[in-house]
């Protein structure tokens, strides 16, 4: 999930209007590459929905021994974290591509998480 380029609109704003439906939608976010899901590799996602019962229903349908599904009603928070996580993932790819090592990767992740937290705090107070 993330923001639509050029508009700044979030998927939780775009999807319902595109589907022309008033019903709540569940948004899945998290590292879930299709190939790894199909290979039954451990995966963790979050099901975000304003309707907690619907989120828990999706959780029950998708959860398995290799698929952990957490739920939240904070759809916007999940979208913002997803967008910011993508920036961190690109930086992690650069660190890996340059073979900078585990220390550099750990430092990047720690700093990235700190900055994501800061952005969330700033957004909560605006």
Largest sheet: 3 strands, mixed
Low-confidence stretches: none
Number of helices: 5
Proportion in β-strands: 5-15%
In the residues, how many domains can be counted? 1
Radius of gyration: 16 Å
Q: Please state how the strands of the largest beta sheet are arranged side by side.
A: 1-2-3
- Report the structural category: mainly alpha
The average pLDDT score comes to 91
Helix content: 55-70%
| Shape, per Cα inertia axes | globular
Number of strands: 3
SSE run: HEHEHEHH
Distance between the termini: 22 Å
InterPro entries: 6-PGluconate_DH-like_C_sf, 6PGD_dom2, G3P_DH_NAD-dep, G3P_DH_NAD-dep_C, G3P_DH_NAD-dep_N, NAD(P)-bd_dom_sf
GO cellular component, one term: cytosol
Domain Glycerol-3-phosphate dehydrogenase NAD-dependent N-terminal: 2-54
Keywords: NAD, Oxidoreductase
Structure description:
This is Glycerol-3-phosphate dehydrogenase [NAD(+)]. Belongs to the NAD-dependent glycerol-3-phosphate dehydrogenase family. The protein is mainly α and 126 residues long. It has one domain (11-124). The protein is built from 5 helices and 3 strands. The protein has helices spanning 11-19, 34-38, 52-62, 75-97, 102-124; strands spanning 27-29, 43-48, 67-72. The protein has a 3-stranded mixed beta sheet with strand order 1-2-3, sandwiched between helices. Strand 2, helix 3 (52-62) and strand 3 (67-72) form a beta-alpha-beta unit. Helix 4 runs antiparallel to helix 5 (102-124). The chain is globular.
